[in-house]
Specification:
- The chain is about 30% helix and about 25% strand.
- The longest helix is centred in the C-terminal third of the chain and has 20 residues, at about 530-550.
- The strands form six sheets. The chain has an eight-stranded mixed beta sheet. A seven-stranded mixed beta sheet has the order 9-10-11-12-13-20-22. A six-stranded parallel beta sheet has the order 16-15-17-14-18-19, with helices on both faces.
- It is globular.
- By secondary structure, it is of the alpha/beta class.
- Bound molecules: zinc ion (2 copies).
- One zinc ion binds next to loops.
């Protein structure tokens, strides 16, 4: 790889350990991190995670999913030794299937993460990817990187931090984590293992910043399980619970609470069934985990059912949205039923969630969210947990990751307080040398790819920008035919879309547009009309001005002039 600009000259021929994020530094989502090892012109790369993010609200019309632009590593894919996945959340694995054809490197994942990825591949009907299943807490080599997985608690099974040993030192890449002495799934934290890593010496710590400005420690998943069990035991009518479908511990807690209360668990939503299947396959739920299909819901008495359903983020096609609109084929709720949001509303989804909650309130259901009761905990570390991590790892260099700018800043300040020698406050695309001599050395091209229908479109290409404008001001299209000599042939035509049909005086907007076209054509002398592009521009300006005067807004205006040869 050529390294120009800031990096030129430095470390020429010498080995370096570098780091760059294609996504995840400056947003929560789209995590895709690269480690490079070797001299500037002959580096081998390791990719850690390859996830998606979601657009916020109506800002990106027509776009459901956003992927990191992989062009930097795509150009050097011969040097990409492998892709290691820390855990199966969409913001970490969601882009793997679509971007893999551009990267073509072996994938490494633990059994549950691999199972979730394979389940997704199966649904998409795509070819198998080369997934190497590695054991939990295993150690393996990927090119020049000696990788040891370190299990940490999170809101999904098998979250694996990476201790990456290289000839230039060790990096500890935390992934998403929290400290949980009593997790429902997976073993309790092995503090000794982290402390030993710190004693061995860690050059750089790349660390989760999601909750970096929340003081204290997050409650344990077991506390949530206890609270849910109590609420369900005391409920009189039906109980419905929605949560993040990948939270297997929560699913397990709900199943156990239902059973303890003498209720049956009914599961609604494909994503939940997929996760439960993978969790049974990999041993995180018992083979006999009892769940009924949604078709059985209506046969159960109100006090003998717990419904677990998708849609905690207000997703319009998920089970809960359809239930709240009383349009679900099998499930209906009524006055006095209890709905528990065992989740946190991700920023950007507030309106969609509120819409569902209002619908449920109209039906007469009682709502319970994490504001009223301990029905959810975050899977990310608060400041006391971060402090303990710094205490064990004692890194020389800290790179805050997994956060918006404000989260990264809070993490950086905390890192300094705990005595880190160097904090590198990086954003996506900034290439930093972690060792030797830590510094920002160069920039990599980064960006966002929109999944637009079947295509991946770079954000900068602009179809979405055009759509935003269309949404705000509509469009007027005018067509007209001219002969070679500049005579008007036939009548000009116009189409208006997204523009009001009448002016305040009751004049049809279409007539106003056609009058403006006529007036303009009449005002252009015959000779000048031979220049079709001048005519088109004059008509465009006149139409836009006329509509602006009547409406107060300027629509997008396109004029197509056909020049006909005959006569
Ligand atoms: Zn994440
Ligand atoms: Zn996660």
């Amino acid at each position: 790889m050529s390294q120009q600009g800031r990096g030129a000259g430095r470390g020429k021929g010498g080995d370096e350990l570098v780091f760059v994020a294609l996504g995840g530094l400056g947003e929560i989502g789209m995590n895709a991190y690269l480690y490079g090892c070797g001299p500037a012109d002959a580096r081998r790369w390791l990719m850690v995670d390859c996830g998606i993010t979601f657009p916020e609200g109506e800002f990106d019309p027509g776009i459901d999913v956003i992927l990191p632009d992989p062009r930097f590593i795509e150009e050097n894919r011969g040097d990409l030794a492998g892709i290691v996945l820390t855990h199966a959340h969409e913001d970490h694995i969601g882009a793997v299937i679509e971007l893999w054809p551009r990267l073509k490197a072996p994938i490494y994942a633990t059994p549950f993460t691999a199972g979730m990825l394979r389940a997704k591949i199966g649904e998409n009907g795509r070819q198998q990817l080369p997934i190497n299943v590695v054991s939990l807490d295993g150690r393996f080599k990927v090119g020049p990187f000696d990788i040891e997985l370190v299990s940490l608690a999170h809101s999904i099974p098998e979250m694996s931090a990476l201790a990456i040993r290289t000839s230039l030192g060790t990096v500890f890449h935390t992934g998403d984590w929290k400290l949980d002495a009593t997790p429902l799934i997976g073993k309790p934290l092995e503090e000794g293992r982290l402390a030993r890593l710190g004693e061995e010496g860690v050059q750089a710590l790349i660390i989760d910043s999601t909750n970096a400005y929340r003081e204290g420690s997050s409650p344990s998943e077991r506390d949530v399980a206890k609270s849910l069990a109590e609420i369900i035991a005391n409920a009189k009518g039906r109980v419905a619970i929605t949560t993040f479908s990948s939270n297997v511990a929560r699913i397990k807690a709900v199943g156990e609470a239902a059973e303890a209360a003498g209720r049956q668990l009914v599961v609604a939503g494909r994503a939940l069934h997929r996760v439960i299947d993978v969790a049974i396959d990999t041993g995180y739920l018992p083979p006999g985990f009892k769940r009924l299909e949604q078709e059985q819901f209506s046969y159960l008495r109100r006090d003998e059912v717990v419904l677990l359903c998708t849609g905690s983020q207000g997703e319009s096609r998920a089970a809960l949205a359809r239930i709240s609109e009383e349009e679900h084929p099998d499930v209906s709720l009524s006055k006095g039923d209890l709905i528990i949001f065992s989740s946190r509303t991700i920023p950007g989804n507030e309106k969609a969630v509120a819409r569902i909650q209002n619908n449920l309130a109209r039906i007469g259901c009682d709502l319970l969210t994490d504001r009223e009761a301990l029905v959810h905990v975050s899977g990310h570390p608060r400041r006391d947990e971060l402090r303990r991590m710094y205490g064990w790892i004692k890194p020389r260099v800290v790179v805050p990751m997994h956060g918006e700018a404000r989260h990264l800043k809070a993490q950086g300040e905390l890192a300094r307080e705990t005595g880190a020698q160097t904090v590198l406050p990086l954003l996506d695309g900034e290439i930093a040398r972690l060792a030797p001599d830590p510094a920002v050395i160069d920039d990599a091209p980064v960006g966002r790819l929109f999944r637009d229908g079947r295509l991946l479109v770079p954000e900068a290409d602009g179809p979405v920008r055009a759509r935003r404008k269309l949404a705000a001001v509509g469009i007027v299209i005018v067509t007209l035919c001219l002969s070679r000599r500049g005579e008007l042939l036939g009548e000009p035509q116009a189409v208006l879309d997204g523009v009001p049909t009448e002016t305040a005086d009751g004049e049809a907007m279409l007539d106003l547009v056609l009058d403006a076209v006529d007036g303009t054509l009449r005002s252009i002398p015959g000779k000048s009309r031979k220049a079709a592009d001048l005519v088109a521009e004059a008509v465009r300006r006149a139409v836009r001005a006329a509509v602006h005067e009547a409406w107060g807004k300027k629509p997008i205006c396109k004029v197509l002039v056909n020049v006909i040869d005959s006569k």
